[in-house]
Amino acid sequence: MPGPDSRTEHRAASRAARAANEIARINAFFPIMPLLGNRWAARRPFEGMTLGVSAHLTTLTAALVREMGLGGGTIALCGASAATTDPAVVDLLRDEGHHVYTTGSREDHHDLVLDHEPELLADVGADLIGFACTHRPEASRRVLGAVEVTKSGVNRLPQLELRFPVVNINDGRLKSSIENRHGVGEGLWHALQRLTGIHLSGRRVAVVGYGPVGKGVAFYARSHGAVVEVVETDSVRRLCAHYDGFPTPSLAACIARTGILVTCTGLRHTLPVEMLGEAREGLVIINAGHGGDEVDVAGIKASAESVDQIADHVVSYQLEGGPRVLLLADGHPLNIVMNAGSPEPVLLHFALLGLTMEWLTRNPLPPGEHIVPATMEREAAELALEALSMAHG
């Protein structure tokens, strides 16, 4: 009989093979990553360099990392969240020689990445960037540049003493128009249906926040037949939601009558537990923002008099003296936890991330925040159009 070690190795190999097969399927229908990999293999832009990456460890991240590895560099990664870490992806990337550190069993994952002395950083949420600037100034001095992907990360940058240039790709034209709007908007509802079986037709949905993500979530909910209301504190965005055809009541009014509520703000405690006392019975709560704290999950758990695990990523909380609410994915971004929706929008902005890191190797910038160059967005868009034309487009 095989021993415990051999069984563990077999399971890891099986998981890695599953992840590799999933990436092959994705590349067959939208080969933007192989196009980039061919380019990087020929140019070797990262030769002799180390790249430090903090990301959600999904098959889409692995699709990017595998191709970036052809560019000649060493890659050290850490997971942005245990909730969005796929063990199969960890096994695959480790098997292929990359250094991967997860958040499940240790808190020093950022330290471990920076121990590799990276010259380039890529981040979601500015966690790695912030740790480097605040806790590892000696590692920061080696960094030629970094790329930040998310709005929550961009919002953190002004609070940091940036010791190197950080390119903001979130606020360019591509990510907000395609990945945020169509990637999250579509993927979120796919994830909901997979978890719960809910059909959106006739359901009343509240979307909290009407930025690019909120617009996509609201648009796709309505396209699936839901009755959608938008909560937005910014008057310009609220007016835009009105003219897009969405009622714009207060959060309290929405909570009292909607059956599904989605947070899309990137802000901490957008949905405080105190607001849930008057919620409709059985309210389904979903987060579509980057982090895990838009919903006051700790407050919900502390206020619950009973808890029922209904299914994977679906937990019912009976609030003391109040309604029963159902929290999905423990308040983490549902579309990422479920790796749901078309991979194309995410891969497009990952292509932009990779192209921008390559651009940083030959374009020195002063410390501070910089918006992504329009030339990089055009280059990524042209690659996407080429990939679409190659694969049944």
CATH fold-level assignment of the largest domain: Rossmann fold
Give the SSE order as H and E letters: HHEHEHEHEHHEHEHEHEHHEEHEEEHHEH
Mind telling me which CATH architecture of the largest domain this is?
3-Layer(aba) Sandwich
Helix and strand content put the structural class at alpha/beta
- CATH homologous group name of the largest domain: Adenosylhomocysteinase-like
- What average pLDDT do the residues reach? 94
Helix content: 40-55%
Content of β-strand: 15-25%
Query: How many strands in all?
Result: 14
Main sheet strand line-up: 3-2-1-4-5-6-14
Shape: globular
Overall number of structural domains: 2
CATH class assignment of the largest domain:
Alpha Beta
Rounded to the nearest angstrom, the distance between the terminal CA atoms is 50 Å
Give your account of this protein's structure:
By secondary structure, this protein is α/β, with parallel strands linked by helices. The protein folds into 2 domains: 217 residues, Rossmann fold; 153 residues, NAD(P)-binding Rossmann-like Domain (Rossmann fold). The chain contains 16 helices and 14 strands. The protein has a 7-stranded parallel sheet with strand order 3-2-1-4-5-6-14, with helices on both faces. Helix 1 packs across helix 4. The longest helix is centred in the first third of the chain and has 26 residues. The radius of gyration is 21 Å and the shape is globular.
